[in-house]
Amino acid sequence: MTIGIGGAGSKIAAKLDSQAVLVNVSETELNKVPGGARRILASVHAAHGQFRGSRKNPQIGHDAYQSVRRELLELVRGNMVFCSSGGGTGNGIATGLLQDLSKVGDINTADKTFFGIILPYAKLESNEFVNNTIEFLTGPLAEAIDSGNTGNIVLFNNKKKFEEKISEDRYNQLLVDSLKLFLSIPDKNDVYRLLDGHIDHEDFALFISKPYFNHFTFLDYDPVKPFGEQLDANSNPLLLEPEAAIEALFLLEVPRGGDPTIFYNILQYFSEKNVSPIYSVVENPDRQKPFLTVAQLYSRKPAELVDDFNRITEQHVQAKVKKSLDQNVVLHKLDVNMEQEARRAVKQRGDTEDVLATLRRLGKL
Amino acid sequence: MPQSSQDSSKLFDEQVSRLHELHYLVLFWAAQGEGRGCKYNITNCFDDLKHAGVTRTKQTAVAAIEGLATLCFIDIRDERNRKNIYITKYGAKALEALVMSNQFQPKPSAFLEEQ
Q1: Which among B31, B38, B91 has CB closest to A358?
Q2: CA angle at residue A332 from A326 to A333, to 5 degrees?
Q3: What pLDDT, in 10s, does the model give residues A308-325?
């Protein structure tokens, strides 16, 4: 099951899973999202009904979390949660959720929650989104990673959406398609003829239950070129750039009659990085060229995470800060006595004005 | 008996010719004060005349002011316990004549400078 929290998280969850549970603090927002099987309205104790969102304020989402806490903690067990880190609802409710998950004792592998977090694009999105994200990365997310009580965390990045001017719906579809391709790995092992290795549903579930960041990507694999170069050139543009892998998983799909031994180069590459990947090679008759799905698990400290997030647009953020500082001009209170000012102006004129001109001005000549 | 305009002009010239420097200065400062929107009163005028070194006595100053008022060159109005001086249109003509004749040079009014 998939759980979508807040506007952004709900849209992705509903696209990914027709049985998704959608959570929001606003009835209006909740009803805007098509699809999904169930909707949960988190209570914000508003006097005039709950038709407003959390207005980019994570505290509103965090307060509302208390009303759905017990239910959500039960629902997220062994499931996937999607939320954004920039807004108020996704950030606020996920903060509560991550804090609670961090506090409970060891969670069984099968009960770990896979998190998909949508990060804003700092260059073009509002400062509130950026600040909320930095607080989220360094606070509840870091705490949850340290506790080891989450599953994989996928950090989606809105960069491509803004740089390539993609509509939100189309971009969400790209995210979902990308996720579905990654999540289809064990199914492909079931469906296609196995040529080497094996990733069954249990292996895959174990992999995605590990408390690391997951960067998955896809590429048309060319066995002649060095694998490292191909991997670097094909990192998933929808996700934050990965760091050195701790663990890896790959599925190589070769065309009918293709060479099943080309995967050894990939193993060799990971071996040099001291990583022993889980892998499988299958024959997919629909493929014309070898196609590779790779997932790398990596770890980041909170400060490094923020660096990763900022690195994309560090210069731009600095320029933004400088601009706001430049604009922060202190306006001194002008203590002007208008009568004195008028007199001063008249005196100034009188000093230079000829007395006869004065008399003419006064209508006396 | 009604006067002809020629007689009036002659009388005006006669009146102007009898004015002294202190009369000129009183007219000048009164005009300047009015131009600046300041109330210029008899006390200010005496102080200025004394400061300009034209007279040292209040009686002289008052006599000059009263003389100008008698000739209708200035109006003296009692305002908030002050006798303020206002140049009349007739006085303006007299001042114009004095300025044009270049007979006297203007001196700064200490009172108006401070405003």
Answers
A1: B31
A2: 145
A3: 776 655 655 666 666 666
